[in-house]
Amino acid sequence: MESSSKTNLKAQQIISSADRTMYTLTREQLIQFITTFCNITLSEITNTNKKVSELLSELVGETFSRIENNNGLIFHDDHEALKYIYNETHCFIWYIAIKEEANYIIQRLTSNDIIFAKHFFYDDNPKGCNISRLRSKILSQIWLIYHIKLSKQEFNTVIYTLIWADGTWSALKSYRYESSIFAWMLNVAKNGIILYLKQMGMIKEAPKRTIANTRTKLLSKNALTCEFVIEMVVQNADMRKILIDIYVKRIDDSTIMSRLGMNEEQYNKIKDKAIAILKSGIIRSPYNFEDMLGDKEHKVVTVTTEYATQFAEWCEYKAEENPLIDIFGTNLSDEEIAEKVDELLHSMYEKMDWNESERYLWRKRYFEDASPNDLAEELGIRRSNVDVRYSRLKAKFYSALREWWKENSK
Description:
Layout: H1 9-16, H2 27-47, H3 56-71, H4 78-110, H5 114-122, H6 132-146, H7 152-164, H8 181-199, E1 214-216, H9 223-233, H10 237-248, H11 253-260, H12 264-284, E2 293-295, H13 305-319, H14 325-328, H15 334-351, H16 356-367, H17 372-379, H18 383-408
Antiparallel strand pairs: 1-2
Helix pairs in contact: 1-4, 2-3, 2-4, 3-4, 6-8, 7-8, 9-10, 9-12, 10-12, 16-18, 17-18
């Protein structure tokens, strides 16, 4: 669903102030809280240009009945009760909003409303009822992965033809209301565009590979590219979440291990399983994701005995050196070099073309090692947004650092 996983700040304040020692809420009080949470959620929905046509009283009654039937109104304390009620209310009303939106779009399309269909498939207004947002995302991903420049007009025509299906709109029959219609259409469009490019001969067949003879190369790829590939080839939600953490959010293993409540052995086992599923999905995919995998085989290079001896002696000599000596000077101690590196990182940070919000996030995460959860709460955004923003800043910073290195290590 498109609803936010982050608890609304107002709702969070209400839940946080609830009694954690006992359950004291009456039936009337529960209904009052459900009404409040309904209003909060309806406000969120309105802000996304969606709507719910049911009356507030009807929504409150339906939500209360669902909670009573599912839970029996049995709670350990008020805090647990309000947290459960908010989640149920939030998800239920968002589901209604998304269902209404989907029904409206399907009804307008299948009634062969030509003007609506034209606006839906061809308009560029990102705030309108159209596919412009998913179009931009897919075109960007196609360029990043395949370096194929597809025009908006060509994209629109391919997707329209796919959904229209010679006037039958049969593709819409596979929509099951398990997500928003736009999330469903995003996947349909991805598959449709890649199939079209493949049929046009613009995407080649991927070479045959196995899990055993390949390695993943996603960490060397753009985070958006990694997300696209993982979403396309990994169906298991739990495995997909671990892979997103590793390759998109670039979270370190110890943090993921802690979140999953696993020891190192357990984590390595499930991580290996997730990577195996990823590689298998890439290998079996009908699309050319070959750049996401590398071959494990080592290339054999023949050199002279004299070269091998000289190279071994050089390696032995360089192993004793700090690798930064060539950059910062041979007369500096390791401590002095570390200070130089710290000065360099701070000076580069000051020169980055970032806004104040980005600078603050980078400084807190990179230099002060602030908790992403604390930062998310402080900035009023989701934890995942902190991770994604930091990952993007890191990519820009390291790119600038690599350029500096090229210039100064010559």
